[in-house]
Amino acid sequence: MKVTVITPVLNGGDTIKDCITSVQRQDYSNVEHIIIDGGSTDDTLTILDDSDVTYFSGKDAGIYDAFNRGLAKASGDVIHILNADDFYADNRVISTAVTAMTDTGCDLLHGLVELVDESNQTIKTVGKNIDKRELLNKMRVAHPSVFVRSTVYQKYGNFSVGFKIAGDHEFLLRVWDKIQISFLPTVFVNMRLGGVSSSQYKKSYRESFSAALLHGATPTRAFTRYCWEVLKIKMIPGK
């Protein structure tokens, strides 16, 4: 089974090398790593040139457009999207995922992600085994942990570029009750935390609200959930 790892990047010179190294150190040999650069102006392209990786550079319409550009280039049976700020938790992640997908026959596998600080110290572990109802309420799947068979994208479509923050949530809602899902309580990815403003949180929740409406939530339920999530953010000091 061939695995394609897609990495979108824009001005990721500070972190892209760690991401690439974590892919190259995987103990699973049948891996294709495709990097989609959005037109970086820092030293990202120099690092890519020196790293013996396949990359494509050019302006895009946002991160979900970059995801889709990667999907168009991918030849793997399974797709994993590993962002430039993230890196695999250990060198057995891909082999563990492939084994789990083979054993269960699932179309989509997800697990856990550790949020880490600048010193790579764990702040929080995210990811949960959920059903469609819970997913309609909130994005509780750790998308950086998600491995998907390429046939799912072929049948149900790629990411919607109309979303700028919650396109991963919309995609999961679109396919969740149509395919076989498996959850593995294993940390797949370490994800670096960046500064996210309250306005970005609000935009994310607004988009998730829209995605939920598209895929089965009632307006009252979706709006109530949106208000609750925004209220919680406002109650956190410094947000």
Describe the structure.
Residues 195-199 have low confidence and may be disordered. The termini are far apart. Strand 6 (108-116) and strand 7 form a beta hairpin. The protein contains nine helices and nine strands. It has two domains: 3-194, Spore Coat Polysaccharide Biosynthesis Protein SpsA, Chain A (Alpha-Beta Complex); 196-239, no CATH class. Strands 1, 2, 3, 4, 5, 6, 7, 8 and 9 form a nine-stranded mixed β-sheet that branches. By secondary structure, it is an alpha/beta fold.
Give structural attributes.
239 residues; 2 domains; 9 strands; single chain; 9-stranded mixed β-sheet; Spore Coat Polysaccharide Biosynthesis Protein SpsA, Chain A; alpha/beta
Short description:
It contains nine helices and nine strands. The chain is α/β, with parallel strands linked by helices and 239 residues long.
CATH topology type of the largest domain: Spore Coat Polysaccharide Biosynthesis Protein SpsA, Chain A
Which residues form runs of ≥5 with pLDDT under 50? 195-199
* Helix share bin: 25-40%
Under CATH at level 1, the class of the largest domain stands as Alpha Beta
User: Mean of residue pLDDT?
Assistant: 88
- From the alpha carbons, calculate the radius of gyration and give it in angstroms: 17 Å
Query: Approximately what portion of the residues adopt beta-strand conformation?
Result: 15-25%
CATH architecture descriptor of the largest domain: Alpha-Beta Complex
Order of helices and strands: EHEHEHEEHEEHEHHEHH
- Total DSSP E strands: 9
CATH superfamily of the largest domain: Spore Coat Polysaccharide Biosynthesis Protein SpsA, Chain A
Q: Tell me the domain tally.
A: 2
* Distance, first to last CA: 44 Å
Question: Could you say which overall geometry the principal axes of the C-alpha atoms support?
Answer: globular
Helix count from the secondary structure assignment: 9
